[in-house]
Amino acid sequence: EVQLVESGGGLVQPGGSLRLSCAASGFTFSDYWMSWVRQAPGKGLEWVANINQDESARDYVDSVRGRFTISRDNAKNSLYLQMNSLRAQDTAVYYCARDFAVAASDLWGQGTLVTVSS
Amino acid sequence: QSALTQPASVSGSPGQSITISCTGTSSDVGGHNYVSWYQQHSDKAPKLMIYEVSNRPSGVPDRFSGSKSGNTASLTISGLQAEDEADYYCSSYTTSAALDRVFGGGTKLTVL
Hints:
- The complex is a heterodimer.
- By secondary structure, chain A is mainly β.
- Chain A has strands at 3-7, 10-12, 18-25, 34-39, 45-51, 58-60, 68-73, 78-83, 92-101, 104-108, 112-116.
- In chain A, the strands form two sheets. In chain A, strands 2, 4, 5, 6, 9, 10 and 11 form a seven-stranded mixed beta sheet that branches. A four-stranded antiparallel beta sheet of chain A has the order 1-3-8-7, with no helix packed on it.
- Chain B is mostly beta strands.
- Chain B is 0% helix and 43% strand.
- Chain B has strands spanning 9-12, 18-23, 35-40, 47-50, 64-69, 72-77, 86-93, 101-103, 107-111.
- In chain B, strands 1, 3, 4, 7, 8 and 9 form a six-stranded mixed beta sheet that branches. In chain B, strands 2-6-5 form a three-stranded antiparallel beta sheet, with no helix packed on it.
- The radius of gyration of chain B is 13 Å and the shape is globular.
- Chain A binds chain B through residues 35, 37, 44-47, 50, 59-62, 65, 95, 100-106, 108-111, and chain B through 2, 34, 36, 38, 40, 45-48, 51-52, 57, 89, 91-94, 97-106.
């Protein structure tokens, strides 16, 4: 089955760190750009970061640049998001997504909730 | 405040047609043809409905169509069905700042 499954979310204190993982299956993971997109409770979607097939290109939204790092392991069919110096404003459901075309994602995981609170 | 502007809500009766607008700038919607639309049912992941302004991924009904004029893109749903009730988000590639894409604030579609 073609799917993405996120894990690693949870409750963390402000200033803390968390690492999200996304396991891909059913397709050739190494062929695709991948993205992380988040959605704060009751809010809209926000693109967070993306990475190309061989990790030679990565980009981030300004609000997370310098704090978050996107990476991938094609041998393990996995995408990651290392999140440091977390803030309350980072509280959201984080989705990993497969980029199908320019700035368009055709496959999404179920999401993992990150809550930053003391 | 979202980068792309969408109406907060639209509604229609079964069988009718509705259109959701998405207004941006020449740096995003108006600057190229990389506009996408997503459907999101409550507590579910988004689903890609339209990409590159007017293309439908495999499996998306042809009741869903997309178009663009200047800085405004539109999603039209014809023959409304009860299962179309959901939130809809537009998205566009952007050349602003260091972003890859921007989203609209979302539109809640109610099928009366």
